[in-house]
Design a protein that fits this description.
The chain is an alpha/beta fold. The protein has a domain at 87-275. The protein is 48% helix and 17% strand. The protein has helices at residues 3-16, 21-37, 41-53, 59-85, 88-92, 101-110, 125-131, 147-158, 169-180, 213-220, 254-269, and strands at 95-99, 114-117, 137-141, 163-166, 184-187, 198-203, 206-211, 224-232, 238-244. The radius of gyration is 19 Å and the shape is globular.
Amino acid sequence: MKSAAIHFIIGIIRLVSLLPLPIAQKLGTLIGLGLWKSGSTASKVAKINIEKCFPDEPPDERNQKAKASLVSLGRLYAEMGMSWMWPIPKVQKKITQVEGMEYLQQALDENNGLILIAPHLGNWEILNHFFRQHLFMTVMYKPTKISTLNKFIFNTRKRVDVGLVPANKDGVHALFKLLDDKGVVAVLPDQEPSRKSGVFAPFFGQTALTGNLIGDLARKTPAYLLCCYAKRLDDGSYGVVLKPGKDEIRSEDLVESATALNESIEACILDCPEQYQWNYQRFRRQPDLKTKYYK
């Protein structure tokens, strides 16, 4: 992508950040409907994923769920300006509900370290604004190949006082060191890893290549496992939800560990399934190396 195009995209994000949030979210709705009605790749993947994950639902309900997920995705795009560029106290005021605060307090009281498990559900950028009020966390960061965009994204996330480590072996070692020092790390659990970094485990009844990192961190440290997401409420504000992860994530059996991780993610998604990122090719790799769900 050319530099001019990147500067244009960044300019659009800055422009949308000037809009009141309800108007930005309406714009996002239009973006999502456009993705749905145009038969985009995102809409096709969402349909396939939802058909596989909710096979017992009538086709009309599955279609409605897929359409709603695209609308949610469009709103997420339109909310980037708000979450990345608004004054931090202004963003924090948009968090109007918190469920499960007692679990976060328990983790802080135990002081054994904390692993935040944050699936791509709702607006996960809002979590940075929430947690900075209570703790300092470190996340893995994979730089883009485009330096201008990379600098923009890095600076917008760094401003909320989040620690960043590279998404490589050095970054993994850094996470273990942080947990040894009773620190807080956040990991996105629902992206497909490399084959050597994961195992196949069920996710909504389907076989999905699932990363080992969270299980490895949980087995080797006493850190508290806390699932978290920021769902979009009916009035356009956000509700942060905190839930303990399943203790079986610590299992020495890698498949059992990955299965427990996926079950923990499923429990989050079922709270607001239309706000999950169903457009991601979660089942791209299969054990037989031949099955292709996304063509």
